[in-house]
Design goal:
5% strand; mainly alpha; globular; 64% helix; 707 residues
Length: 707
């Protein structure tokens, strides 16, 4: 229960500038910046990191230049800005599934679903705030929210680590430009192990992955690395060795195993094993939370009824207790059902629309409770999305809704719920921060609604731009396949300069897999248009091409296809299931291990490097968990992630406009870019810089926690 002696930093009877235009505008701008970096990160490794603390630090610093701001204005900035990161995760992990289902991502539908899911998360948290944030104060710690309150209070009293964030941002952006833009050194040094057939090692040595590893810590990054090593040094070599004498392709591949590279073996077989492990890990994390889920749901429903009984009492309560009225929740929810049902771009019927709101309330409650206990980084949003997909797809299967259109409907249902649950957890942290510093909840709820709208409008553009930038068009010959005539179909120019008809394959036909193709006038396939997100082509003309792996999107696609088409290599999936269960039996958290198994080893290696640095730094600094949340190393890592991700998007944009060759290095630099050993020098320097900043003590006059 709430401590009756608790007093926020700003007393309820004191009025300060809070909901100002400059605070909301700066929050919206920073939200868009961190939304872009979060989209990029989620597409690469299937995770994001909290943006609230770096946004709070940047707000304090920028307002010292633009004009001194109150602590409540800075809180509005971080509240508005945090919406971008939470929506980005939901969008980046679900929208690419349309590509895997043989469709295009549509800008309007992405923005609309992001907006609907974000608003649903805000609405559901309004009646829950009193029960979860206020009455459970002292029980639910909301670690990121508490740490963010500490940052705001320290900033108000004179201490700030903003220079560290800016330094990390600059270094991350410069490194990314020199590496991915000018190609001065290899981005993914790799080597086949000649003495071990089928085995290979690689590392995508980028600032954003190094920063992720530092933030998640040594233990989680080590679990991910273990999964990657199992994949590339055991499973892929085993499949290669046992399959090299096969004279026919082994399902689900259509190519002989002896003709496959390690990456092709991974795409054909190991991805299904990883998908089974990730799904199992997500469900296990959800099952572990069942007592919390049931308690949270009961309290949330009771709070909802209590709020209804207190309708109209807003004028009588303290400033720090004023929420948006319940009528906003009720009529807003009805409006959402109608907006979802009547939106032609979503193709969702009324049953799915009602399911979305019901699932939304349930999983927002769950998300808020879990983030209160274990933090946002451990919040199993993907597990909740898997549960939503399973329930929705099984209901569709029971009534015979198994066509292509119903797969898209099931995905849209889960996507909106995923965005709502992700946003609900973030809002909870923001409301906790506001509770500790003495903010006005009603103004925070309005601010994050504005953040949802501003971020939703640009996230779709970012996702589509990244996909287009890394899309490759490669020759494809399937002489036995003839595409049916489609009058009025869209056309696209091929690499040879000729115009072709665009043809979508939504069901595998022989050797023709699901995807987008270019066909000639006779209906013969000429080219495969391999998407930049979750694409399968790893080499073009003998050179490696960059793809954004989007592991969560692949997982969700497998679930939809597996249930509604009843065609899935269940043997491989079950191997992953039992691998995850085995990890749990020996006391290892299966979810990070499964994510490492699912991702390329090149992604896990730099994450492990960051985790090792974090372990060394924490041992030297001997910081407690609250201090570690906004230590110099964490702020530096946040800067790495934001700077490198933003520059990655800039480079992707240059690539999309065909300007990448203008900034590429030449002569001696091409020699260096082909020398894997050289790339370890700048990355080693980056690691050393992170270590030096991590062990430094920027805030000598540390203040006590706001809690």
């Amino acid at each position: 229960m709430k401590d009756p002696h608790f007093s926020p930093f700003v007393p309820p009877d004191r009025s300060l500038r809070e909901f100002t235009f400059r605070a909301v505008a700066l929050g919206a701008i920073l939200g868009i910046v961190f939304a872009a970096s979060s989209v990029y990160l989620a597409l690469k490794v299937g995770m994001t990191v909290s943006a609230s603390i770096p946004i709070a630090v940047l707000s304090i610093t920028l307002f010292r230049v633009l004009g001194r701001a109150t602590i409540l204005e800075n809180n509005i900035v971080q509240t508005t800005g945090s919406a971008g990161e939470s929506i980005a995760f939901g969008v980046a992990t679900t929208m690419p599934v349309f590509l895997l289902l043989g469709q295009d991502m549509e800008l309007l539908s992405i923005c609309w679903m992001a907006l609907l899911g974000g608003i649903l998360g805000v609405l559901m948290m309004i009646p829950l705030r009193q029960g979860l944030i206020v009455k459970e104060h002292g029980r639910l710690t909301y670690p990121e929210g508490t740490a963010c309150a500490d940052v705001l209070i320290v900033g108000e009293q004179g201490g700030t680590n903003a220079k560290t964030v800016f330094l990390g941002f600059g270094l991350g952006a410069a490194y990314k430009f020199l590496n991915a833009g000018m190609k001065l050194w290899a981005e993914i040094p790799n080597r086949m192990l000649g003495f071990f057939k089928g085995a290979s090692v690689a590392a995508e040595i980028t600032p954003e992955l190094l920063g992720v590893g530092y933030i998640i810590g040594r233990r989680v990054s080590a679990n991910m690395m273990a999964g990657g090593l199992l994949s590339y040094l055991l499973l892929i070599p085993a499949i290669t060795i046992f399959g090299e004498n096969l004279t026919a392709p082994m399902f689900p591949a259509t190519t002989l195993i002896r003709d496959m590279s390690p990456n092709e073996v991974r795409n054909a077989y190991v991805l299904y094993i990883g998908a089974g492990a990730v799904a199992t890990g997500g469900i296990i994390s959800l099952i572990r939370s069942f007592p919390t889920i049931i308690a949270a749901f009961r309290r949330g429903f009771r709070t909802f009824l209590d709020s209804r009984a207190g309708k109209g009492a807003q004028e009588a309560v303290l400033r720090t207790e004023r929420d948006l009225p319940l009528s906003v929740v009720v009529f807003g929810s009805i409006g959402l059902v109608l907006a979802i049902w009547l939106s032609p771009i979503l193709h969702i019927n009324v049953i799915s629309a009602v399911l979305i709101v019901l699932f939304g309330f349930f999983f927002v409650t769950v998300s808020s409770r879990i983030t209160g206990e274990i933090g946002s980084s451990s919040n199993p949003i993907s597990g909740m999305t898997v549960a939503t997909l399973l329930i929705t797809c099984l209901l569709f299967l029971a009534v015979g809704w198994t066509g292509v259109s119903y797969r898209a409907m099931a995905l849209s249902t889960a996507a909106i719920v995923c965005i709502a649950a992700s946003n609900g957890g973030t809002i909870s942290q923001d409301l906790k921060t506001g509770f500790l510093v003495g903010a006005t909840p009603r103004l925070q709820q309005i601010a994050i609604m504005i953040g949802v709208i501003s971020s939703a409008l640009v996230i779709g553009l970012i996702v589509i731009a990244l996909n287009n930038a890394y899309t490759t068009v490669t020759p494809a010959r399937h002489p036995d396949y003839l595409a049916a005539a489609a009058p009025g179909a869209e056309t696209q120019q091929g690499p040879d300069g000729a115009m072709y008809r665009v043809h979508y394959v939504n069901e595998p036909v022989g050797t023709v897999l699901i995807g987008k193709y270019l066909v000639d006038d006779s209906g013969r396939i000429a080219y495969l248009v391999d998407p930049g997100i979750a694409g399968v082509v790893s080499e073009v003309d003998g050179k490696q091409v960059t793809k954004l792996d989007s592991p969560k999107a692949r997982l969700f696609s497998l679930i939809i296809d597996g249930i509604l088409t009843q065609k899935l290599p269940w043997g491989l999936v079950l191997i992953g299931v039992f691998l995850a269960l085995m990890m749990e039996l020996v006391g290892i958290s299966s979810l990070p291990f499964a994510v490492g198994l699912y991702l390329p080893l090149s992604s896990s290696a730099p994450i492990m490097a960051g985790g090792l640095i974090r372990g060394i730094v924490d041992r030297k600094r001997k910081s407690n968990s609250a201090e570690a949340e906004f230590s110099p190393g964490v702020l530096m890592s946040s800067g790495f992630i934001a700077g490198a991700a933003i520059m990655g998007i800039v480079v992707a944009g240059l690539t999309g406009f065909g300007l990448d060759k203008a900034i590429n290095g030449s002569g001696w630099s091409h020699y260096l870019s082909e020398a894997d050993w050289f790339s370890l020098i700048p990355f080693g320097a980056l690691m050393y810089m992170l270590y030096r900043v991590g062990v430094s003590v920027k805030d000598k006059g540390k203040q006590k926690s706001a809690a």
